[in-house]
Amino acid sequence: RQLEEDAQQFLDKMREMQEKLKEQSPGLAQKLDQLRQEALEQGLPNELSQASQQLERQNTPLAQAHQKNARKQLQSLSEQLQQSMAGMQGMEMAMDSEAITRLMHRGLFLSSQMESLTESPLGQSEGAQALRQAQAFEREAGRILAAWREMAQTNPFMNREVEMLLRQSGERLQRAIAAGKGTKWVGLHETRQSLIALNHAVHQMMMDMRNMMQQMAQSQAQGMQQQMQQLISQQQSVQQMLQQLQQMGKEGQEALKQLQEMARQQAQVRNEIEKMMQKYRHAQQLRNQLEGIYQEMKEAEKLLEEGVNDQRMDEKQRRIMTRML
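Above: the chain's sequence. Below: its structure in token form.
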């Protein structure tokens, strides 16, 4: 009954998260809805309800079967949800960092052009050409501000200070242009003030991107640790079952069949390690560590397939756990 209530709360929470993320992260909201619908279609609530009813009827074996199916579905749902959130967050952050970098380059280029104008004889004259350049700068400043605002709507790391500084830079340029009443250029002072505000905005963009990248790295590290902790738990189960088989002292075909089944369970853990190797292939040191675990597991599988469960297997399992920890 408690499992049934927990599962229903879990599904309800997914629905709440989906509603909250519709605007901020449409992709993740869609994935949440998909996972929730899959859970409903696969009969998770029904499995839990049946388990509860069978327990009330004191039909324990049938109740356990329904509970087992429900637990598997819940575990799968939880893992997919975790992976989707971590992957989607990382992907969206990576896209935002590229967009910020492009805006920084645009801001720096605009800054260099404005500086050239303020330091040149043209900028210190009253010529119409300088006025036209300032008007072009003001339009580009407006486009940069609009692009930043659009990104800031969905990214909490986008500092409001950047928007304020970009708006201030644009307003200063507008004053510089308006000072000559559209006929001459007398906005040198305001343009210099606009340049200062723009440079501060670009610097703040850099700070925002640094904070975002730190958060992304931290999120990836936490996701990796959680995933490894799950695999450690699975590996401990394999180790404990092998120890139990040793204590039972079985021999012959029955023992070989059980060890070969353990080899398949070991292969499942190894396959997850392989996925992590692919996911973190650019982190060379981490990948090398995972490669060592992978090879140890592969050797353990071979021994189990051959029916070996002695001191060699004990040592192999100890080495695997040491590397994973």
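DSSP finds ten helices and no strands in the chain.
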